[in-house]
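Posting here for the record, re: flavin mononucleotide.
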Amino acid sequence: MTTNSVLYELLYISSIAPAAGISVVPQIAKHARERNAKLDVTGLLIFDGARFCQHLEGSESVVRALYARIEADPRHTQVNALQQGASLSRKFPRFSMGYADLAELDSLQFMVTQSSKTARDAFNDLLPTVDMEP
Ligand SMILES: Cc1cc2nc3c(=O)[nH]c(=O)nc-3n(C[C@H](O)[C@H](O)[C@H](O)COP(=O)(O)O)c2cc1C
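Prediction output follows.
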């Protein structure tokens, strides 16, 4: 197995750009689904009305290149990787990009200051409470 085919995961948090407006969110999710299916990337995008939290998983080189594009996207700011590294198995094998809109505004705020392990644990804890759209 070459380095490039290692399964890699990345979790980040960001804030929606004030100029973007929440109407961009469904477009982002739709585009992500279509593109990720071609890239063999899976994951989950959570939005709480102010912040995004996204888990990406796929081959390391693809995930890193995708994250670099996402990081440069002007529709969000304060893009911050919380945790990344090799992974043994996919957490969202059925979702090219699952999407969940949290009902409670700012419910992702507490993730901003977490260490990488606590952030990953907090994300895992959120999963049973989110209503994922495939
Ligand atoms: C919060 C957020 C999440 C995104 N997630 C993805 C994603 O999972 N996959 C993707 O291809 N683009 C995603 N994008 C869009 C990228 O930033 C970028 O616009 C896109 O990859 C460019 O795609 P293109 O090369 O097909 O034009 C996301 C953007 C934002 C703001």
